[in-house]
Amino acid sequence: MADLSINLAGIQSPNPFWLASAPPTNSGYQVQRAFEAGWGGAVWKTLGEPIVNVTSRFAGLNFGGQRVFGFNNIELITDKPLEVNLKEMDETKKRFPKHTLIASLMVEHKQEAWHEIVKKVEAIGVDGLELNFGCPHGMAERGMGSAVGQHPDLIRQQVEWVKEVAQTPVIVKLTPNITDIRFTARAASAGGADAVSMINTINSLMGVDLDKWLPIPHVDGKGAHGGYCGPAVKPIALNMVAECARDPFVRLPISGIGGISNWRDAVEFLLMGATGVQVCTAAMHHGFRIVEDMIDGLNNYLDQRGIASVMDIVGKAVHTYSDWGHLNLNYKVVARIHEETCINCNKCHIACEDTSHQCIDIVSDAATGKERLVVREEDCVGCNLCSIVCPVEGTIEMVEIPSNQPPLSWNQRQAALAGGGSCET
Amino acid sequence: MSVPSDLQKNFSEVVSALKPKEAVDEANRCLFCYDAPCIKACPTSIDIPSFIRKIATGNLLGSARTIMESNPVGASCARVCPTEELCEGACVLNHASKPIMIGLLQRHATDWAIANKASLFQKGEPAGKRVAIIGAGPAGLSAARELARLGYEVTMYEAKEKAGGLNTYGIVSFRLPQEVSLWEVEQVEALGVKIHTNTRIGVDIMPDELFANYDSVLLAAGMAKVPSLQIPGEELEGVLDAITLVEETKTKPLSAEMVGKKVVVIGAGNTAIDAATCSKRLGADNVQIMYRRTVQEMSCYQFEYEFAKQDGVEFRWLVAPTRVLGEGGRVSGLELIRMQLGEPDAKGRKRPVPVAGSEFVIEVDFVVKAIGQNRHLPLIDLLGLQHQNGIVAVEEGTYRTSNPQVFAAGDVIFGGGKTDAMVVDAANHGKRAAHAIHKAISEKQPV
Fold first, then answer.
1. DSSP A343
2. Are residues B199 and B280 in the same domain?
3. Do B54 and A286 touch (CB under 8 A)?
4. Domain with CATH 3.20.20.70 in chain A
5. What is the distance between the alpha carbons of residues A299 and A287, in angstroms, rounded to a whole number?
6. Which of A33, A279, A292 to probe the B interface (max B CBs under 10 A)?
7. CA-CA distances (angstroms) from residue B250 to B107, B166, B268, B285, B337?
8. Chain-chain contact of B32 with A286 (C-beta, under 8 angstroms)
9. Is there a domain that residue B280 lies in?
10. Which of B:395-434 have CB within 8 Å of A?
11. Which end of chain B is more exposed for a tag (fewer CB within 10 A), N or C?
12. Which residues contact A413 (CB under 8 A, 6 or more apart)?
């Protein structure tokens, strides 16, 4: 059994799986059920001035027969008085002292407001704070949430105010609704944050009802953009985590969030620099019990590789993530089709023929009367499209073709050209 | 006569394994229901949605462990359970689409564990207590596995040459290859359980020795031979017992003596089907199942009935054998009498009544008896246990017999019903009996 405990900026947790601040962490009843199910930590539903919610709040995106490929919501922060939340948090922490309890906070842009709430939540013994600078709907219209997260100056200012009084580690939760998340992550770092978490949800309109001509979901005939999350956002989140992990100016531990549905997703985030992960949509789809396979699968993954601690994989793939200008122009892969498992759907052919580089032929075999799919390797650019559309895993393999050229990146090539024509590496 | 080489092929597994893509596609079709009806329909309560989700996430080790945790003979059950009457029959997708192929997914995960020599469980911290188990079939193995995990020193006594019981000897290879059952035996042995094979109670070891040397004894001896038909001619060469017939196809080189012959199987339970399909696959030209009731009263599973028909087995209802005819000491024919259904018996099944004067004779080379199995009466008496017609009496819920030191599980306590006890029921008995033994021993210990 590998050691699954993590240390995120001084915050200890029995495992890297936390529930993100969201509907699943709305009450002590829910968070305690989650801890019983095995979740290592929970970020409580954001505390602040209680709000009023609308009804009809969530929408799901189904794709190809799979439900909840994406998910969005227009629910705001907690609608319960602060005292009620604090009492339930206190009870939860007392019942589960070893589990990680983080308070998510969002107040107006005032120093004293931040000071006051930080002191109140720390008084009940939370393990850390998460500043919600990410929520994209409703609260942003009131100058909070992602309205802050889109302005590095505001982030830095508010983090500084929090750090003036905070005794526990401060995590800054960032919005993806911004051109380059590194700038806001750097602002959090400059303000003294102990960690960043990303991503919050993405502005989205889930759909339009074809019969009623109304947005989905709508509230009495009107809709507003909601926060998008779920498996569909994972690549966006993973990129933002990796970009911050390799950025020389951010230099903060990262709590990864965005479409994480199982242990495999979690491992990807950990390898790309997240010290732990936060989950919401998958739990909303299936219940808290999904954490059992997350823990079991992660543990088996580590055991099978002889890795003693989950902390040993954190960030291990970050150095492989770079800029396009550093990629080797002389590296070549080509598609190779394994005929023994090919089912002759011809999808690789038509994808290549119509939309890529016209290098997969359908060839009739005179001897057998059967058709075969044959790659003209000399014309293959190694784009991967055929292997992506192939329905049978492993049937189209992208094979590395040894190059007789030394590695050469675009940047090296341009530098060499500028320096007088030799292509040294 | 040499054995045609294709006979052996007839005995390889009929149902193909899921291909990897098929398994993942199917796993992703599972809804992952909460408080799922499939779990409730499984006698061993395997957390089916959980093991299927683990297939979907690529955690095959975890998947196999989830299965085997609840059912120590889960690899065999993946192949022999009547899933359409159990988990798959309960799947909520029956109403909306098609049920999930739970049995085949279970086989996918356990096949992975077999192929990868996965170590699934560890033995518990030694508790300093000893338990003897009589019979190393599904119930006994299941109990042994649980007790070993709880830290007991477990010794099993098995009359046969190999452990595994019915799964090793009694289920046709084309449904359950012997190596699957033997892998389950290895899993139990790997926890330190000692299995003494070729060892009979009352012959090689006396009950008194067991009572003296073990804190508890579990009787899980299963069933004995097929009873006699009680008709003339039964001693003729060519009258076989279905259990022995199946066993020989799993333990000896296949015989060619049935090639081109006519075979009659008496009875219509699952063992009769096994004997009939076995005979067909041994090359018999014509195989008929003769049953004294009708298709409605047959105790075999529906899928077994369909399978036999596809194998070309013929069914004759409302007939009973009255005499085996012979020539030169060998079976040459069978006299039968037509039956009709009368008043229902105690179990509610209509009683077959002979139609006077309706005897007729058919030509036949082999007569296979498959009319149920005897109980191990001498063994039960030797242990001094109370029983009713060979069904060992146990206390409800604790599996404790009339001797407080002795517990019983599996077929020895199974009191009948429509069908024979299923392997999965035996596994469940064994598991529960193990926990009852653990409770009894722990409570007896000084505080």
1. -
2. no
3. no
4. 6-319
5. 21
6. A292
7. 21, 11, 22, 21, 34
8. yes
9. yes
10. none
11. C
12. A329, A423
Helices marked H in B102-260:
102-115, 138-149, 178-189, 207-213, 242-251
Q: For residue B5, is it within any domain? A: no
ipTM of the complex: 0.90
Q: How many residues does chain B have?
A: 447
Contact B220, B135 (CB under 8 A): yes
Per the structure, the count of domains in chain B is 3
- Positions of A annotated as catalytic residues are 135
**Angle at which helices A291-304 and B48-56 cross, to 10°:** 50
| CATH code of the domain occupying A6-319 | 3.20.20.70
* Fold type of domain A324-418: Alpha-Beta Plaits (3.30.70)
**The pTM is what?**
0.92
For residue B230, tell me if it sits in a domain: no
Per-residue pLDDT of chain A (425 residues), as tens digits, is: 999 999 999 999 999 999 999 999 999 999 999 999 999 999 999 999 989 999 999 999 999 888 999 999 999 999 999 999 999 999 999 999 999 999 999 999 999 999 999 999 999 999 999 999 999 988 888 889 999 999 999 999 999 999 999 999 999 999 999 999 999 999 999 999 999 999 999 999 999 999 999 999 999 999 999 999 999 999 999 999 999 999 999 999 999 999 999 999 999 999 999 999 999 999 999 999 999 999 999 999 999 999 999 999 999 999 999 999 999 999 999 999 999 999 999 999 999 999 999 999 999 988 888 899 999 999 999 999 999 999 998 999 999 999 899 999 999 999 999 986 555 44
The answer to whether A286 contacts chain B (CB < 8 Å) is yes
Taking only residues 212 to 271 of chain A, the set having a beta carbon closer than 8 angstroms to any beta carbon of chain B reads 262-264
On whether both B204 and B109 belong to a single domain, the answer is no
Q: B20, A393: Cβ pair inside 8 Å? A: yes
Judged by CB atoms closer than 8 Å, whether chains meet at B57 and A297 is answered as yes
The chain A residue lying nearest B116, using CA atoms, is A304
Nearest CA in chain B to A295: B62
A293 at interface of B, judged by CB pairs closer than 8 A: yes
Do residues A41 and A100 touch, judged by C-beta distance below 8 A?
yes
Distance from CA of B35 to the nearest CA of A (A): 11
